């Protein structure tokens, strides 16, 4: 019996040693983007996937699974095997606002995921159809006050950061902008260009090509400073609307239980990619600021944002019902 126990223990030790020594990754990695193709999230995911593919020598496969303001794709990753081969392109709206907006969101941000690294901060931009008789945010607010309920704005969905920001704008400036949710930044932008919706609150990365081509007009960026990609577009504050500074972010998360050594390896690879000059130039040009922080730092921001947005959601009475 003693010899049998010794043999079993030795076999288990050998198996553990072999498992620990197995290289990661040794097959393609799936990166789930819970939003439609063409928006800032999809762009950042695709660019990061290119860099990580070069790092790992295995393909990073980007899959878009939009729906329910990002909840559907996010749930998929929460339920995935925690081995590092299924990752989430997380967005602050879905991870830190949706839990306060949806009564049955289907995931627990802190319990179901391990944050790997924030990859970028995203500058938000208010864009309008060219027929809107306002050249900046101040004039838009004046127009909204003159015609209560006549102006609407599109976003990537209920509970998204732009949605929460738009509702705060209603409260802060005493206006009544109507929210029109879409499944992603690209369809929302298409709706504004077609004059189905007057405005869209979205990321600079999503709006950039349409602004520079003159298909829509930018009213202002809700950030402390102008976006490098659109240096001629003023901030809300510069337009005479002070006290409204909001950005968004994207990051990579893995299912809870993913081994620390895998998380650390992924974080190191992400940091390497985001620090390359070519990556930085591409992101900055699109209105994104590369980050590449640690799992601990990313976790801290997520916890703080959950508390911050919960208070705003309650104040603005945002609900998915």
Automatic annotation (TrEMBL):
Classification via Pfam families: TctC (PF03401)
Signal peptide location: 1-21
Keyword Phosphoprotein: no
InterPro entries with a match to the protein in the record: BUG, Bug_dom1
UniProt keyword annotation of Signal present: yes
Record's keyword terms, sorted: Signal
Residues forming coiled coils: none
PANTHER family according to UniProt: BLR1237 PROTEIN (PTHR42928:SF5), TRICARBOXYLATE-BINDING PROTEIN (PTHR42928)
Family membership: Belongs to the UPF0065 (bug) family.
Descriptive protein name: Tripartite tricarboxylate transporter substrate binding protein
Naturally occurring in which organism (per UniProt): Variovorax robiniae
């Amino acid at each position: 019996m003693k010899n049998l126990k010794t043999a079993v223990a030795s076999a288990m030790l050998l198996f553990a040693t072999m498992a620990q020594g197995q290289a990661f990754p040794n097959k393609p990695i799936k990166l789930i983007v819970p939003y439609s193709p063409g928006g800032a999230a999809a762009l950042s995911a695709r660019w990061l996937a290119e860099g990580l593919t070069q790092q790992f020598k295995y393909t990073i496969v980007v899959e878009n699974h939009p729906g329910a303001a990002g909840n559907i794709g996010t749930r998929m990753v929460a339920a995935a095997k925690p081995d590092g081969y299924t990752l989430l392109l997380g967005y602050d709206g879905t991870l830190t606002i949706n839990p306060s907006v949806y009564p049955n969101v289907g995931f627990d941000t802190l319990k179901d995921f391990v944050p790997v690294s924030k990859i970028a901060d995203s500058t938000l931009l208010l864009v309008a159809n060219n027929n809107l008789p306002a050249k900046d945010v101040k004039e838009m607010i004046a127009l909204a006050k003159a015609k209560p309920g006549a102006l609407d704005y599109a976003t990537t969905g209920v509970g998204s950061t732009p949605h929460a920001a738009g509702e705060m704008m209603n409260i802060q400036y005493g206006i009544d902008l109507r929210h029109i949710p879409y499944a992603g930044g690209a369809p929302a932008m298409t709706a504004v260009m077609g004059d189905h919706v007057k405005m869209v609150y979205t990321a600079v990365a999503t709006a950039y090509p349409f602004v520079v081509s003159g298909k829509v007009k930018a009213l202002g960026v809700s950030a402390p400073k102008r976006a490098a990609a659109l240096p001629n577009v003023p901030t809300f504050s510069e337009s005479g609307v002070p006290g409204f500074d909001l950005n968004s972010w994207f990051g990579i998360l893995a299912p809870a239980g993913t081994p620390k050594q895998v998380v650390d390896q992924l974080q190191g690879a992400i940091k390497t990619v985001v620090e390359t000059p070519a990556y930085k130039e591409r992101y900055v040009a699109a209105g994104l600021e590369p980050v590449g922080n640690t799992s601990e730092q990313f976790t801290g921001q997520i916890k703080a944002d959950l508390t911050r947005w919960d208070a705003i959601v309650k104040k603005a009475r945002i609900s998915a019902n």
